[in-house]
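Journal club prep — side note

Before the paper discussion, L.F. wants everyone to see what a predicted structure for a comparable chain looks like in token form. Sequence:
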Amino acid sequence: MNTVTGKTKGTEYWTQRISEQEMPALCSTVGTLEKLARDDKSSLSILGRSVMHDNALTARILRVVNSAIYSKGNTQITTVSRAAVILGFDCLRNICITAKLLSSLLENKNLSPKVYERLLKLMAQAFQAAVLAKMMLYEHDEEVQEQVFIAALLHHLGESAFWSSGGELTEQLDAELNKLIHVKDQHALIRKRLGTTFSQLSLGIAKNWGLGEVLIKSLTNPLEKTPETQSIFIANQLSEVLTQTEQDPERFEALIAQASEMLGVDAKKFRKKVIRCASATHKLVDAYDAKALGNYLPTEDSLKRITESEEDEKAQEADKLVRQNDASIELKKLKQLTRFTVAKTDFNLIITTALEGILDGVGVDRCGIWLVSPCRKKLQPRIVLGDDVETMKREFSVSLTELNNVFKQCLVKRENIWVNDPNSKTWRAKLGDYHRELVSPKGFVLCPLVVSDKVIGVYYADRVTTLRKFDDESFDSISHFAQLANVCLSVSTR
């Protein structure tokens, strides 16, 4: 496409042009995959043979299936056919389409720098939306998750395909769009220049290529009250906000509230999941060897800063008031523990007194002790006080077989540990994704539980409900309670 036509063409023209001239390889790949999907018996072996002639595509697919995101074991997958057996046809189909989409869109060397940058931003937004949409339906089966992933990824395929075609029209339209502020004016200009909208073009391609009912429904009726359509709609809205150069905290929070209400989930937990999706998206584009998109994706740290400042200010004020009220409780519990150091006292009474001092005196939302199992391979909750106790007792056991585990570090080194940011690079390596879901994003404190010079467990404390950060004074106070309780426990065993 090298010249500007004097006459706009419409959806049918652009759909045909993109299918036959601009992206014939992707169109052919999708067609092949759709035929294979209807032939369960031979689809796996034929799928492997159908992409073997494309070495670059095969290499990209194998890189993805062997990445941490999709790998289901320690065995390296060396063929596409084997990948289909292990991951399932639907999953591998989406990997094939995604890999071919990237090569079709991003390997055009004839785009102007500004148009190419627009395309990169759009593709980054699509990847972010796909990961978010899949996350929202984590309780559904894998087939549904794969359907919404690919539908969200291809939701703006018409627009992406247009910009990747290059030429004078793309450069002129890009320049004109940059001068317009209002979205309504931008849509009007696009319709005037192309004779269609990008949404209509995406729908035309989806129908022509047979890209699935989920994508078609999300384009024809984006507000339809089905889990699939809702997740795609919300994911695209959130992705648009998250990938902006200047992020809008108010709109972000409004979308979090809207999405959590529509999905029937807790807003705080949903926000945490959205923020963690940023890391997953970076890993995904790296796996596809599309690192250029990473420059236009948000990071976990940048997303946390959207809401942190206002929350921290409120939390600090609340913390001051709480500390004033709790000082007398802290002193009372310390005096009780001091009395226990000179007389044998029941184990549970010592621990409960110390935990009550930490909970109500220091001012945390929940705290407890985790004891080493008889086989010394696990830490298991024994006594927990505060918020969400049942969840902690039911779900928060810790394996001690991992080498670089912060809980194991507390036991082995017998040191008090203040994890100030579980999502930071420093602590993420010492705390798995599962446990980062359970702890407070504002941090937690661990202290060794020692009886007669033998480490038998850990004390744990966090502020998961109020989302207040710990400070030096709080850390010292928790450590003091733990050390004093350890002395009492040692006395009780003599």
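L.F.'s comment for the group: Confidence is low (pLDDT under 50) at residues 1-6. Keep this in mind when we get to the figures.
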